[in-house]
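Much of our argument rests on the idea that a fold can be written as discrete symbols. The record that follows shows the chain in one-letter code together with its fold in token form.
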Amino acid sequence: MAPQEAKPREAKPKKDALAAFQTPKSKGAQKMAAFATLPDGPLNAKTIRALFSGLDVTPGYGWHNYRADGSIDGRHIVNVGNIIEDDYGSWTVDSVSRLCTLWNSGHGDGKTCYKASKRGGKIQLNYRSRTVIYEILE
């Protein structure tokens, strides 16, 4: 019988960290401090919802604002001629703890659901062979 591959453990936040994410005025530096207390690894649905609600991030080519009401605003800088594209859409967390986004412009593959994890102080989103690294903005 072949040995089973160990499943990565989901990062479970300390209760204080989760409370800091859920505080309505918890923005920027407070979210960064709360995020820093999480261990590296996959994030569970409760943590993703609390973290992304009201979160401003940069994927390195613009910014995204995940609002508490499930909407997203964003600006993308397209490499060809440094064209700036403003966009909006929606976000949810599905039943298997993935962050799902749907951009109005059709950005990406329609509704895209990412596995979210913490890696070295940054948020890592994985979808198929695509990886997005988010930094939290203050």
Notes: The first strand starts at residue 41 and ends at 42. The beta strands are 41-42, 55-58, 62-66, 71-78, 83-93, 98-103, 112-119, 122-127, 130-136.
